[in-house]
Design a protein that fits this description.
about 350 residues; alpha/beta; Four Helix Bundle (Hemerythrin (Met), subunit A); Rossmann fold; seven-stranded mixed beta sheet; four-stranded mixed beta sheet; about 40% helix; globular; binds 5-S-methyl-1-O-phosphono-5-thio-D-ribulose
Length: about 350
Amino acid sequence: METMRWLEEGLLELLDQTGLPGTVNYLKCGDYREVATAIKNLSVRGAPAIGVAAAYGLALAAGNIEAESRDAYIDRVREAAVELAATRPTAVNLCWAVERVMRRLISTQSDDPGVLRHAVLDEAHAIRREDESGNRRMGEFGRELIPQGARILTHCNAGALATAGYGTALGVIRAARAEGKDISVFAGETRPLLQGARLTAWEMYQEGIPVTVITDNMAGYLMAKGMVDLVLVGADRITSSGDVANKIGTYSLAVLAKEHNIPFYVAAPVSTVDLSLTSGSEIQIEERDMAEVTHLAGQQIVPTGVQVWNPAFDVTPARLVAAIITERGIVRPPYPQNLKKNILTSQSEEAD
Ligand code: MRU
């Protein structure tokens, strides 16, 4: 199932993930503001997927602008870029994709709006293609970390739904399975919005990969019983020192994994690595509406008037991360040296 599709007539269709697994419905977006809303309310979610969606949002904006000059045209697209980039603060892939499209637009030497529009759309297509092919490479690198018979605990959804296709953490699982490894998955349900129960379980089940859902508070007992061989998750932002922001609850799993001597792995594209930040404490953590905690499936579960706190992500310190898998290889500590090497060395190799 595709997370999103660009239609020839200049429309973006987004799979509305809030309805899954019960309802499969595509939202038709003709205006970038509709894409911004879809990102904010998690119709499209997952770090790479929101980056790709925002890039297509810019293509929608670029297609709808009438401006008297090239500069005015670029200014109008920039307004859309600012709005799209502000929809969610934690996943760096969002700003990365928006900035990449803007760079392509600005470097396109033409006054013809048709040419400028084409450049924006072409860059959005490129980001989408590269995300999917990068995930497949990530899978090929990462599968060597997955032993035959491994029982893998994952959190949230870092699958095809969270990307342009194939997935990051779930992509590694897919690749291990494709080479014949007999593996199984535990999906933490991921309160408050249940991405693990609704989305990861759905993806794995459809693919015939054995999956068992647990509530988040069962992870410690599961590990204590010796039922987990490794933890594998995605990421929303990784600092130069290897600190990892990911869905709230990830940090608790990393601490538990350490206690039980279970390796904790992260799979993420290099577009998730933010070399401008050193410490995880510099990452802005999104706080979302209290209603996500006070209500479950439309039912109020917290007494009226009681305070709740709803951070959407947490930070796992690098010391708890055994390896980071990117589309350019497996990175091991020390991360300050090795992450940079993984990103920069391979970039110049690709350019050659
Ligand atoms: O709030 P969400 O559903 O967008 O959070 C998603 C996650 O935390 C994922 O683990 C992360 O973005 C990696 S997706 C490949």
